[in-house]
Task: inverse folding
């Protein structure tokens, strides 16, 4: 089967550090931290007081009030990001067949805030008083569904629900779908908005979240004092196109998607394999899928959650795959700025990889202070820097043992 080339031609995002893709990227370059006290509910009395919330997002600035009322927040973020991606790409359906345009958008938790609110309403007023919109607004696939409705894309429309790897799976699956000839254009990515009492409380109970009250020492990937992740929210959508399709309409190309690997640890509900072998295999698969070599990779946007197990295990996995070259490449975690956006994380980080390649810039791991011997690679501490980049790898490692890696290549006409 002919393997068609796939490029990124449009970017859209709403994140804790920006309301657009380019605003978010500029914040990455500036080392802006999106971690702050929780505002979406009153966390008084809870052990965790911080999150990485999207700030200043007013849905009515992007859609009508009735539309906004019939979308959960994660869907609003996704639809707005998709609209931006299309506008950024200068793409309209006049330039393609609707049946060969698809949508793959992940969410790990969906409309959890709605579940909490409607459950409270049902207990108070009776279960038959629950909103008729609760189910169609709250289910995880509705971000993908609403994007398809708003764009008229009639091809495959799907939603990987693979925890923290979902956004990466969405981009990887869309890449393969175009590469193997099933579509010409795909909107893909992830969306999440789960800064709620139940989510914060549940992640706290399982010891996943940091309880550090200092925003500058909360999300600190690879630092010896890391103590858990900071829950974030947001969305990122990428427009992928088959190369000749993009060229035919004179599209601007950000980067090329060249490899994708996905594996499962088959080990534990939440903990990764200590040797990082599952993540290592996903990286190896992505590199092989691209026909590249490990030494070709210049930068890794790590999963880098700021949990003790993840960061040490991911470092071990990188050493397994890259050997001595592990000490020559750069590996940073933008979760130090955005927090952990669960199902949106991989999509946001894919977007950052594309822009890193385009601009030749390595994002920093901010707030890094105390080196950890188990995480002894070049984590681009505190300050991003310019670099000659040709290949960038993005990793995602999710609860359930899901591992995903994407390999991107600098666009060379």
Result:
């Amino acid at each position: 089967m002919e393997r068609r080339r796939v490029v990124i031609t449009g970017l859209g995002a709403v994140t804790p550090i920006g309301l657009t893709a380019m605003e978010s990227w500029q914040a990455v370059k500036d080392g802006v931290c999106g971690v702050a006290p929780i505002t979406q509910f009153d966390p008084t009395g809870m052990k965790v007081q911080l999150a990485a919330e999207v700030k200043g997002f007013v849905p009515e600035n992007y859609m009508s009030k009735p539309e906004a009322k019939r979308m959960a927040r994660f869907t609003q973020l996704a639809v707005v990001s998709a609209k931006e991606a299309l506008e950024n790409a200068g793409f309209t359906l006049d330039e393609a067949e609707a049946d060969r345009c698809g949508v793959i958008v992940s969410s790990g938790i969906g409309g959890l805030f709605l579940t909490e609110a409607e459950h409270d309403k049902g207990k108070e007023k009776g279960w038959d008083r629950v909103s008729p919109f609760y189910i169609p607004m709250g289910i995880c696939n509705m971000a993908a569904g609403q994007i398809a409705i708003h764009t008229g894309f009639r091809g495959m429309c799907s939603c990987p629900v693979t925890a923290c790897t979902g956004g990466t799976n969405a981009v990887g699956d869309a890449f393969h779908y175009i590469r193997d000839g099933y579509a010409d254009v795909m909107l893909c990515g992830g969306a999440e908005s789960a800064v709620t009492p139940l989510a914060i409380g549940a992640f706290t109970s399982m010891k996943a979240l940091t309880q550090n009250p200092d925003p500058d020492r909360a999300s600190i990937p690879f630092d010896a004092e890391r103590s858990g992740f900071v829950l974030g929210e947001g969305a990122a959508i990428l427009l992928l196109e088959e190369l000749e399709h993009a060229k035919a309409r004179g599209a601007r190309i950000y980067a090329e998607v060249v490899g994708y690997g996905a594996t499962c640890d088959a080990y534990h509900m939440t903990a990764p394999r200590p040797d990082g072998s599952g993540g290592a295999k996903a990286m190896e698969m992505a590199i092989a899928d691209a026909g590249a070599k490990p030494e070709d990779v210049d930068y890794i946007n790590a999963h880098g959650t700021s949990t003790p197990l993840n960061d040490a295990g991911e470092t071990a996995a990188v050493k397994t795959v890259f050997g001595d070259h592990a000490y020559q490449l750069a590996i940073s975690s933008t979760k130090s700025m955005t927090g952990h956006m669960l199902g949106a994380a991989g999509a946001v980080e894919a977007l950052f990889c594309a822009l890193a390649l385009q601009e030749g810039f390595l994002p920093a791991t901010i707030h890094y202070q105390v080196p950890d011997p188990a995480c002894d690679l070049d984590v681009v501490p505190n300050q991003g820097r310019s670099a000659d980049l040709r290949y960038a790898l993005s990793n995602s490692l999710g609860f359930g043992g899901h591992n995903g890696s994407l390999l991107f290549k600098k666009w060379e006409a």
The mean pLDDT is 97. The chain has two domains: 7-248, 259-408.
